[in-house]
Design brief:
With 143 residues, the chain is mainly α. It contains four helices and no strands. α3 runs antiparallel to α4.
Amino acid sequence: MPTTWATAADVLTYAKATVDDADVLRAQAVIDLEVGRLPEDAERIGSRDQYWLKLAVAYQAAWQVSQPDEFERLDVTSTGGSQSTQGTDSWMTLAPHAAQALRRVSWLGSKSLHIRGAGEDALPRREVYGDDDAADPGTWRPL
């Protein structure tokens, strides 16, 4: 079997589901599309990220066996009547617990905090006080 982040035994351990190697391989392919990394690159990936990827594949494999139409679904954006449904890009193809695990992978997590590199200049401070003219909002002046 090709290299995967998880095994059928991991699926049984973490998701309490019995799957075969083919199910794990299908789940692996879905997770590979989400993360953009292959198990063959494991030596360049930290142990924490590998753990979250193992969980993602295990949960994905367990979920996929109960989704017989997963590869045939359409991207539904609304249903009849007065209700509408809008999910994330992967809501119909990615297991909920797998998505949780992938949010913890370092390169897929929140990008809200940016730490400047050594050669990266800080943005110039913008002056917001004063009404000198339209081109220059002015400089701070004590009252």
